Description:
Layout: E1 2-6, E2 14-17, E3 27-36, H1 39-46, H2 49-54, E4 59-60, E5 64-72, E6 84-87, E7 90-91, H3 97-100, E8 111-112, E9 124-128, E10 132-134, H4 141-145, H5 147-157, E11 166-170, H6 174-185, E12 190-195, H7 198-206, E13 211-214, H8 220-227, E14 233-238, H9 243-251, E15 253-261, H10 273-278, E16 282-285, H11 293-303, E17 312-317, H12 321-329, E18 335-339
Parallel strand pairs: 11-12, 11-14, 12-13, 14-15, 15-16, 17-18
Antiparallel strand pairs: 1-2, 1-4, 3-5, 3-9, 3-18, 5-6, 6-10, 7-8
GO biological process, one term: L-threonine catabolic process to glycine
Binding site for NAD(+): 175, 195, 200, 262-264, 286-287
Domain Alcohol dehydrogenase-like N-terminal: 24-133
Amino acid sequence: MKALVKQKAEPGLWLTEVPEPAVGAGDVLIKVLRTGICGTDLHIRSWDGWAQRSISAPLTLGHEFVGEVVETGRDVADITPGDLVSGEGHLVCGSCRNCLAGRRHLCRATVGLGVGRDGAFAEYVALPAANVWVHRHPVDLDIAAVFDPFGNAVHTALSFPLVGEDVLITGAGPIGIMAAAVARHAGARNVVITDVSEPRLELARKVGASLALNVAKTSIADGQRALGLREGFDIGLEMSGRPEALRDMIDNMTHGGKIAVLGLPAQEFAVDWSRIVTSMITIKGIYGREMFETWYAMSVLLEGGLDLSPVITGRYPYQDFDAAFDEAAGGRGGKVILDWTA
């Protein structure tokens, strides 16, 4: 089968033939229809320091996908050939304290699809049935392909109650934009999002952000004044991994505010802990999705009318992967999709 592979320990990707994956007793074989390009895939393609430390070549990339079930192992129940599915890309041990307690998203032995094992940028992918999410209601294939990052957005945005709250999101990448849509849909009063990319800020406006601020020109405090906020933001969602973004967020939170942090910084940095303590600010780290509570919430949000279509800004046949990766790396648009049916 065709697959997009990190074939050598150097920059680049290779479209090549690889064997179809084996299907164990508890596995599901999926014919891949569409995939989404993630920042992780960009790191692997460029072969940066993180990739060099984390990846062993050869490796088939990809963890954002939607496909059709074509075969199931003998021990698999409730999943049948023909089902439309997406996959949870964190494969867990099942036997540690957190897994046994039902907190699989906290497993210390997590292996990442397309990072620690061959992934979904291929014509077929095999996954444990426990990692397969069946779409029981109609869903657009492009949106189903990005359920993984959509889950990051939902997990972050729904970490704290949102109804009637004023929400600040720092970082208008695709996940930040999806989080803005979720926060608005879930009942936030105001949703303010910041970035320095005007095209991405415009996408945030399309999904319902109350105010999209270019912080190279306008401060968050100016945004507060424009909305008539007197005491700061109730909820903060940090999506950028930028030190200045988190610092600005802390400076603009109300006393007792709550911050969920998804953005991964490149290195350690200082924050004003005295401000956090004296303002009684709660900070919660977010990684991945809650399995499978977040997935259930995603499906319900879409059934309830949440529109993520503006977030999909690029579509390419898989043979044009270089152009697709170049667009994704440009940092000006939303999610870029590869079509594996061409």
